[in-house]
Amino acid sequence: MAEQRAIKNLQDIRETKLETYANEPPLVSKDFKLEAADSADYSRRFVFELLQNADDEMPEESDKPREVLFELRGDCLLVANNGRPFDAADLDAITTLTQTTIRSSLVAVKAELTSFNPLT
């Protein structure tokens, strides 16, 4: 059931994006440039970013150990953690440039990390 809901959410997001681009053609070029800049920035530190995102969703006060799983399944990488479950707002955020569901206090931290590249 959750998988069907996720597929429906993705289809809705896709339709909304296509409609937006059809109504605002200059947005395609703008988003392409933003995506290219983000891709260049993240390409060498994506594992760090995945760990940071997982840590952002872990409860502040918890006796549970923080756990993150990286599992390669064929040509797909599964990343999971024991933090807050991924929801429809998160799905929309990862498909929308410059959008986030992270608390505002963490956005400032992430902004400072953009110049930090631990893998170089």
Please explain how this structure is put together.
With about 120 residues, the chain is mainly alpha-helical. It has one domain (about 1-115). Helix content is about 55%, strand content about 10%. It is built from five helices and two strands; from the N terminus they run H-H-H-E-E-H-H. It has helices spanning about 1-25, 25-40, 45-55, 90-95, 105-115; strands at about 70-75, 75-80. It has a two-stranded antiparallel sheet with strand order 1-2. Strand 1 (about 70-75) and strand 2 form a beta hairpin. The longest helix has 22 residues, at about 1-25. It is globular and about 50 Å long. The termini are far apart. The relative contact order is 0.13.
Portion of residues in beta strands equals: 5-15%
How many H/I helical runs?
A: 5
Q: What characteristic shape results from the CA principal axes?
A: globular
> Termini, distance in Å?
42 Å
Q: What level of helicity do the residues show? A: 55-70%
Strand order of the largest sheet: 1-2
What is the structural class?
A: mainly alpha
- Secondary structure: number of strands: 2
Q: Which stretches of 5+ consecutive residues score pLDDT under 50?
A: 103-120
Order of helices and strands: HHHEEHH
Mean pLDDT score = 75
Count of separate structural domains: 1
CA gyration radius, whole angstroms: 16 Å
Largest β sheet strand count, sense and barrel closure = 2 strands, antiparallel
